[in-house]
Amino acid sequence: MRLIAISASFLLAVLCFTRPAICLEMPGSPVQRAQQVDVYAQVAKLEQLVASLQQQVALLQSVIKISGNSVEITSGHDLKIKAAMTVDINAGIGTTIKSGATTNLLSGGNTIIKSNAFDVSSSVFRLSGGRGEISAASEMSIKGAILKLNKGTKPLATVGSMIVGNQVITGSPTIYGE
To answer: Would strands 175-177 and 154-155 be described as parallel, antiparallel, or unpaired?
Structure first.
């Protein structure tokens, strides 16, 4: 029996000398203990990553609400949408943009609004810039208690107005021009 144990120890020593990888991978070897420590470190890192991802998901869920076919994005302060190229907003039926105070539509180039009906309900509506055009394929109606063209202060002539030379004597009391 003792001879078998000595023979086994000798064979193990020869194997470890000729093929050291075999001895290093044996249970309880320093390499295996280091691998176990490395696995524990990896598990700890993964647990930290999972905790971080859970916090991020919770934050997103506090801002983005999904129910049925509806998605709502809520911000307690500012909400910015940025794109390097194009932002498209498409709706099958309607689009509403609301503001509690001022709404600005800014463009570095042309701004084009196309619609079958365009209604502006505002205490002040300004179109400003280099060039502007309002056109209609058929009837166009412009309504206001007083209409001023080019910030005009002189009554414009209408049907039946009295004109002497280049002066409008009895022009419109509600349409002014320069």
So the answer is: antiparallel
> How would residue 1 be classed by pLDDT, with cut points 50, 70 and 90?
low
The 10s digit of each residue's pLDDT in 112-123 is: 777 777 766 666
Give, in degrees to the nearest 5, the angle at Cα 157 between 155 and 160.
125
The two tokens of residue 58 are 């919770």
Among candidate residues 175, 178, 109, the one with its CA nearest the CA of residue 147 = 175
Confirm whether pTM is higher than 0.70: no
- The yes-or-no verdict on residue 50 having pLDDT over 90 is yes
CA–CA dist 155, 148 (Å, integer): 9
Q: Which band of pLDDT confidence, cut at 50, 70 and 90, is reported for residue 132? A: low
Contact status, residue 64 vs residue 73, Cβ threshold 8 Å: yes
- Could you give the C-alpha distances from 121 to 107, 144, 149, in angstroms and in order? 21, 11, 19
Place of tokens 């365009």: 118
Strands in the chain per DSSP E? 64-67, 70-73, 147-148, 154-155, 163-164, 167-168, 175-177
The pairing of strands 70-73 and 64-67 is antiparallel
